[in-house]
Structures are given as structure tokens and as C-alpha cells.
Amino acid sequence: MCTERCAKCLGSTLIPLAVSGFLAHLLLFFPGGKVIDNNDHLSDEVWYFGGILGSGVLMIFPALVFLGLENNDCCSLYITKMFTSTIFAVVGVLGAGYSFIISAVSINKGPKCLMVNNSTWGYPFLDGDYLRDRDLWSQCEKPDNVIPWHLTLFSILLIIGAFQILICAIQVINGLLGTLCGDCQCCGCCRGDGPV
């Protein structure tokens, strides 16, 4: 299989994932689907911008590098471009990993909400206990539906981050293979000319 075509396929997969991660994170600024009057009432992890930076903006760079690999004079710059794609793939793993970790921590911690027992804003759940016991959800008074909103969006970011890590890890291997085999014979098979 041609390493350039593989990279292009991986790059085209990263673009919709990056956009989805960006949009999912934007929705976290509207807990329960509503505008809130005080930004201090947002969960701390929303301000870490895991979906916007890690799974969103930072993922665009590897995707563009991967997409640009097929349209090059691979006999002259093939090794350099494949090695560069490997470096960007590692950057992608780090960005997606950041988003994945932030999402996992936030899912375990639960959302920030107005707590029923003392009428203050905080985190009423401990160590993911609300995931096992839905009756605990009544501890959050406001914003309405904040728990399913929080859980759904951070779960989406978690899944997107996991896919992005996998895609970028595949490109690390693909890029290393392209770097090691990087000669004109590899390029000839990409164009369908056969080995040179």
C-alpha cells in the first residue's frame, strides 16, 4: 500500500473529526443548552479548551500535512516529507491525547451546577458516582439538563480524541515506513507506473 495515499486518507478523516470536536466543545459553553449569566458557573474543564485546541485547531495542521503528501515530487523530497508527516502525527497524538484526558477527567468529575443541599455552585459528585447512580442527578438544581448535556458532549470529545489518537498513531507508523522505504520505487507504485 502506498504510504502517501494512506496519509491522504487519514488526513481526510481528521478534518471532519476536528470540526466535530471544535463544535462539541463550543456547545459546552451553553450548559443544558442555555446561556448562563456567570462564566464562573461553567465547569473548569470547559476553560481548558480540550476540544477547541486539542481535537480541533491543533488537529488541522497534521490533517493538512497528510493531505498534501500525495501531490509532491516524491522522488526528490519523499523522505523529508514522510518524516515531517511523522512529526506532525506525533503532534496530533499529543493534541488528541490532551483532549481525551481532559474529557475523561471531566466525565469522572461531573458538571459544575447549583447544588440542592447548600445552594452554592460546585461539583456535587465524587469519582464518577453519578455515572452508576442516576438518583444522584437530583443533587444538581441548575442549569436544567446540565448532567446529560455535560456527559454527552464530553463523551463525544472522548470518542473523537480516541479516534484521532488512533489515526495519528497509524500515520506515525505509516510515515516511518515511508521514511525508511523512501525511494523512487515507492513513488512509482503510487502513480501506477510500477517500480522505476
Rg from Cα? 21 Å
Chain oligomer state: single chain
Shape field: elongated
Residue-averaged pLDDT, rounded?
A: 86
Largest sheet: 3 strands, antiparallel
Total number of beta strands: 3
Number of domains: 1
Biggest sheet strand line-up: 2-1-3
What percentage of the residues does DSSP assign to strands (E)?
A: under 5%
Order of helices and strands: HHHEEHEHH
The tally of helices reads: 6
Structural class, please? Answer: mainly alpha
How helical, in percent, are the residues?
A: 55-70%
- Which stretches are poorly predicted, pLDDT < 50 over at least 5 residues? 186-196
**What separation lies between the terminal Cα atoms?**
16 Å
Compact overview of the structure:
The chain has about 200 residues and is mainly alpha-helical. It is about 65% helix and about 5% strand.
Model description:
It is found in: Membrane. Pfam families: L6_membrane. This is Transmembrane 4 L6 family member 4. The chain crosses the membrane at residues 12-31, 46-67, 87-107, 147-170. The protein is mostly helical and 196 residues long. It has one domain (3-32, 40-191). Helix content is 64%, strand content 4%. The chain has six helices and three strands. It has a three-stranded antiparallel β-sheet, with no helix packed on it. The longest helix is centred in the middle third of the chain and has 36 residues, at 74-109. The radius of gyration is 21 Å and the shape is elongated.
